[in-house]
Amino acid sequence: MSAGADRYSLVVKGGTLVIPGVGRVCADVGIRGGTIVALGDDLASPADAVFDAAGKIVLPGIFDPHAHIGNERAYEEEAETETRAAVLGGVTTIGIFLRSLEESYLKHLPAFRKAMDERSYVDSVFHPQIFTEEQIEEIPIYAEQFGIRSFKFYMSGMPGIVKSITDDVLLHGFRTVAGLGADAIACVHCETGVLIDAARRELQKQKDGTLADWEHAHPADAEALAIQTALYLAKVAGAHLYVVHLSSRQGLEVVRNARRQGLRFTVETTTPYLGIASDDANGFLVKMVPPVRTKDHHDALWEGVREGTINTVGTDNTSRCLATKKPEAGLHGARPGLPVLGTHLPALLHYGRERNVPLEILIDSATRAPAKTYGIYPKKGTIAVGSDADLVVVDLDLERTVRAEELQGMSDFSPFQGKTLRGWPVATIKAGDIVARDGKIVGKPTGRYLPRTASKVAPDVPWIRPQA
Ligand SMILES: [Zn+2]
After folding, report:
1. What would the pLDDT profile of 286-304 be if each residue is shown by its tens digit?
2. What digits encode the pLDDT tens for the residues 208-232?
3. Do the beta carbons of residue 348 and residue 366 sit within 8 Å?
4. What's this model's pTM, rounded to 2 decimal places?
5. 290: cis peptide before it, omega within 30°?
6. Is 390 helix (H, G, I), strand (E, B) or coil?
7. What is the full DSSP assignment across 357-368?
8. Cα 97 to averaged position of ligand 1 atoms, centre (Å)
9. How far apart, in Å, are the Cα atoms of 192 and each of 198, 238, 336?
10. CB hemisphere CA count around 186 (13 angstroms)
11. 277 Cα to the center of ligand 1, angstroms
């Protein structure tokens, strides 16, 4: 045997692979360099290292399509600290919603990209958030020069944080995105601004309140109505709509009706909306926009995940520290934003399995479905020969109580803190290297920014999953 040619750099041995679209397969994974090169029983070639995954499940590295980086501290710093928390939690790729409220992204994209190439533990794609007509005009340049295929629009902004765009600007944005090609994605924060404004005025009459009161600041009807509008405008423009962070039963009902009419679009929810309710004991630590809602909405969102009307599950991670979150400032003063990259996979597994949602569906929503949507499948989002060797080895029975300091991001709190979640990663493998093991970082930040190439093929996600 020629020295080295057949040698694996790493073999993940004896685990049960969960392969989206295939199911559970007992097989070893042979890795050379950063790529999966073999799957099979008892891989025979020698290996530099062997990871014993017996009794564990092996998942594709988790792709969180919805993260914010640099909203609290410098972008470069969070590119390191928040992706460290991510990789420790089994997330190996993130989609980052970039923020430049006024200026052209051409001023910022080189630095954003450099940070992800030099400091990140995870791979990344970019979704610039579009606020100005100038930015809309530059969308083709962002695509051409930086390989960006997805852009985000806020129908309703967040008072004091980001502004809203009007429907005419949204339509112009949709048309520009559609002009890039069938694979381009228009992500939308769907809330109708005037309904939010009215609800907030009403809530201002109230001096104090609880997290449950905050739910009324962003009524579910405002989400449902905005989805209806966005669907119509996307249809007019021929754009592929991606509804970010669906949070309500009413919103889901609009999505279902539109799917029944044959409209093709993609819908995301997040682990906080699936697991944390508005009566949560952590109170304003969990303040978010849109708000976490009552358990009735959880029931609806889980039905959506199970039946496939909700395609992807992300985080909407926006890291903060207690000093800026200010939970003690209450209903009007506490700031939205949740550090949740490190708890994403455990929360998905814990709350999903509590409701008997099949593991294959949970994993699909956090790997293959977002990877297909954003044009990085099958490099990401599956376990296959030729795919990137990003894997997460999970002990489904491992229970841990969430403590912020163990998550290793920059935040000193977690909205899940104090909760015991079942199902945690015991190792994360990124590009063929073991980067995290038993709750500790053991590798280096080797993440890369992933420019995407244009494709004539529209995102191919299941619209309604065939029912068993
Ligand atoms: Zn977001």
Report:
1. 999 999 999 999 999 999 9
2. 899 999 999 999 999 999 999 999 9
3. yes
4. 0.97
5. yes
6. coil
7. --HHHHHHHHTH
8. 7
9. 10, 21, 18
10. 33
11. 19
